[in-house]
Amino acid sequence: MADHRPTLGPASFWTQANALLRKNLTFQKRNMWTNFRLISFPLFFCVLFVVLQNLVDSQLNNSDNRCGCSCVETNRNGQCQRRECGLEYSTTDQASSCPIPNPPEWPALLQIPGPNYRAVRTGSLTSADLPNESCRSTGSCPTTTFFTGNNQSLGEILTGSMFSTSINFNYSDLLGSLATSVLGTQTYPQGYNYLEPAFASDLPIYNVQGQCTSNSTFSIVFNQSSIAREQVVTCARGLYLWRNSSSEVNDELYKGYRKGNSEEKINEFVAAYDFLNSDGNNFNVTVWYNSTYRNYSAGLPMSLLRIPRSVNLASNAYLQFLQAPGAKMLLEFVKEMPKPETKLRIDLSSLLGTLFFTWVILQLFPVVLTSLVYEKQQKLRVMMKMHGLGDGPYWMISYAYFLVISLLYMLCFVIFGSVIGLKFFTLNDYSIQFVFYFLYINLQIALAFLVAAMFSNVKTASVIGYIFVFGTGLLGGFLFQSFVEDESFPRGWVIAMELYPGFSLYRGLYEFGQYSFRGNYMGTNGMRWGDLSDSINGLREVMIIIFVEWLVVLFVAYYVDQVSSSGAGKSPLFFLQKFWRKPALSFRRPSLQRQESKVFLQMDKADVNQEREKVEQLLLEPSTSHPIICDNLKKIYPARDGNPEKFAVRGLSLALPRGECFGMLGPNGAGKTSLINMMIGLTKPTSGTAYVQGLDILNYMDTIYTSMGVCPQHDLLWETLTGREHLLFYGRLKNLRGFALNQAVEESLKSVNLFHGGVADKQAGKYSGGMKRRLSVAISLIGDPKVVYMDEPSTGLDPASRNSLWSVVKRAKQDRAIILTTHSMEEAEVLCDRLGIFVDGSLQCIGNPKELKARYGGSYIFTMTTSSNHEEEVENMVRRLSPSASKIYQISGTQKFEMPKQEVRIADVFQAVENAKSRFTVFAWGLADTTLEDVFIKVARGAQAVNILS
After folding, report:
1. What CATH number was assigned to the domain covering residues 858-929?
2. Measured on CA atoms in the order 64, 70, 76, 81, is the torsion positive or negative?
3. Would you call 898 helix, strand, or coil by DSSP?
4. What are the distances in angstroms from CA 28 to CA 31, 405, 710?
5. Residues 631, 589: contact at Cβ < 8 Å?
6. Measuring CA to CA, how many Å separate 322 from each of 277, 310, 315, 354, 460?
7. 83, 170, 701, 823 - which has most CB atoms within 10 Å?
8. What residues have CB less than 8 Å from 826, skipping those under 6 apart?
9. How far is it, in rounded angstroms, from Cα 896 to Cα 448?
10. Are strands 286-288 and 80-85 parallel, antiparallel or unpaired?
11. What is the pLDDT of residue 223?
12. What is the pairing mode between strands 708-711 and 787-791?
């Protein structure tokens, strides 16, 4: 491995941002097919709407729905010479599309409840002046109107003159006669007045009178605009009831509000009047009327309301009070504006697009969420951070990366929808759409960053994300929309529901759909900026909510990320850390710490004690040449699920100079990986600390990362990036650039045998386990890190690759401090300058391999294999050679003995074996010095035995 030392120090903010951006673009290029599938989702809905729109248009514009025509002149052969089209030749279904240059004049009517729905005395309406419920069986229930005010006597005078006691029709002036009467109908009004539905149905028209007589019901023939129809006029007795206050009126109107047949909203009362402070000099009146009728088929939020007659009745009554009983302001008729021939137009994208387009836009949420959680689950975020990527560049590039993808997604969506002609996009102002979509996708990305902190598994995050998508659409379509359209529902509660981001998106799309639907139906434009000031338009409040939530959620997401998701995390008050943290290069410890260390001196081994004293001495110096100093480092995992607390690391003190490779040996669960995790910032120490390059890991981990390399126990790689692309990315994070970067990458690939045969440009997901380990080692060493941690780097390697890797590590340890964990004693002897054996969280011994073998291996291992019936003779021979020998292994004639070196001469052993061969058959024998493996086993068993006894 070549020594690539950057000359510019730690990578700058923009260098780190450039490295991450290049990596993301490469990653994106490898996922073109995934991007195509993502974009095809909204395109599918757009094409589906076009197909359905064509089918609907073909049905709406057939001859049954176009203005009716008839032949008015034929030739001798019976062939039509002239055809005329118009309202008079049309059916009811065709009439709506006909031109009406001179709309008919219709009498002004009241909205009268049907006989079965008129107010009577019930369990909820208990007023004694209401009629008994028995009137419904005979159809004689009166039509009730309330009145109130400051002057009851004046109110009684005014209401008494509102109804006539008789009616005289002049059929030569039918419209004028109807205008002098108080007519009403239970027929529901429409959104236009070209055809009054009361004169096109079989339901009767009611004539409201003070009293009904036997001749009060009669028929009239109404002839208007070539429409001739006989209509029954039935008397309905009018009943005016006084109430003491407007609150009483409100209460009874509310109790009389109910749903009739087919869930139509009706009211049991005709109207109500509050004459306020009216007297002989002032006339002030408030009129209550029924405004609950809807007409969705016409694409209008509300139908026309029959209130002109209610206002006219009150005005005429006051005029008669001032003047004379015959004084009247005649309301002769109401009339619609002229209209040209129209076609029935229903835009499905506007009608149904709110729900489906909500799903289309929300689909980006689980995409961003799973991408963030994937980096967290695979520990790729932490891996990047450990190699010098700061939080600032990560957030800036990641956010901008997702924002650009979202913008491209939305642009493709809007552009394609506009190209194929969806009115949802073409009628509404594009600038409003852009602002709304831009604000929401920013909120959506910020929300994904926040939610990602709560998950560590991609599958779980994906399921929750798609539940959010489909649940939001369904709740918006079947719950939230009904509240928006219900004018009686408090607006404050609607705004509160819009604080949920999914509902704010749904409300914005709902407004676009409503405006484009009406614009298409009426042949006008959709939403424009001026429409945001309309009281019924909720888009302005939605955009304000989204903008504020975007800023708040982004801030909270960054804070939560710093506290919980960034390696070992930070204190909740990390932003105040600069006010209390110690200077970077201050090693002096408080006296209490030194007292605590003295306790350990009495308990540990001599070599461990010596290392602890060395650490304490180094801590008292103003500076040191040791890149790594561990000072009484402890890690205790708390009790969980009924298990006691676990001591993973028990007061480790260790100092590593430059150029040293320190090997950590120990059985599984001894605490080696826990120590590495503390040193690289994955977990926080329970107590104690460590210094890397003179910086405390508790306070300066972000700075330490810039000079650190890590080869984790498990390979942390992007499956779709190649080995070369991994090294380019991490090399840029270490401030390598240009020729130096390319040279470092090439030499790194060669050193770990990944350069030839196109392996360097193969995606890491296609690497074998050994190739991934070699790549991880190359990543840990690129860019001249001063401190390197390798957790079992040779796991899964074949012998040739392992030897090649050892050569790389031996060259790399020059001027570096390396901590290496391994289960291979051979690897430890080859690579490590010093070894430490870890058992149950404690350092049992420390020294170079020769020292440890000399200290713990003062014996020979004698092995002999014979037939089973000669085992006793072999054991007797060994006892004569070494009375203190101990048998450590026996099976099927093979025995192994440990003989102290001071009791044995090698020549005597050879002589004894030769004598034995003359007495019985010896299949195999051997005499070996103690190996490092024997030392490890001996120390580990001894320490575990002591722990069990204690």
Report:
1. 3.30.70.1150
2. negative
3. strand
4. 5, 10, 26
5. yes
6. 16, 19, 11, 55, 77
7. 701
8. none
9. 63
10. unpaired
11. 66
12. parallel
Per-residue confidence (pLDDT) for residue 656, from 0 to 100: 92
Residue 896: exposed, middle, or buried by beta-carbon count in 10 A (0-12, 13-18, 19+)? middle
Q: The tokens of 497 are what?
A: 């529901």
User: Could you tell me which residues come within 8 angstroms of residue 853 by beta carbon, excluding any fewer than 6 positions away?
Assistant: 929, 930, 931, 932, 935
* pLDDT of 300 above 50: no
Whether residue 688 contacts residue 631, with contact meaning beta carbons closer than 8 Å, is answered with yes
pLDDT, mean of residues 808-815: 85
As a whole number of angstroms, the distance between CA 305 and CA 291 comes to: 7
β-partners of residue 696 are: 691
The letter for the amino acid at 245 is S
CA dist., res. 449 & res. 452, Å (int): 5
Residue 569 pLDDT grade (very low, low, confident, very high; cuts 50, 70, 90): low
Mean pLDDT on 831-836: 90
pLDDT in tens, 934-947: 777 777 776 665 55
- Residue 604 pLDDT > 60: no
Nearest CA to 942 out of 865, 789, 839 is that of 839
Tokens found for residue 478: 């079947």
Q: Which CATH superfamily is domain 591-851 in?
A: P-loop containing nucleotide triphosphate hydrolases (3.40.50.300)
Element (H, E) at 386: helix 380-386
Q: Is 923 exposed, middle or buried (0-12, 13-18, 19+ CB in 10 A)?
A: exposed
DSSP string, 152-163: HHHHHHHHHTSS
Sequence-distant (6+) residues with CB within 8 A of 126 are none
Residue type, 868: S
Q: Where are the domains of the chain?
A: 103-335, 352-565, 591-851, 858-929
- Tokens representing residue 513 in the block: 């759909």
Average pLDDT, the chain: 84
pLDDT exceeds 70 at position 11: yes
Beta strand pairing status for 271-274 and 143-148? parallel
Least confident of 598-612, 717-731, 902-916: 598-612
pLDDT exceeds 60 at position 612: yes
How confident is the model over 302-349, as pLDDT tens digits? Answer: 578 888 999 999 999 999 999 888 788 888 888 888 888 777 667 777
φ, ψ (nearest 5 deg) of residue 714:
-115, 140
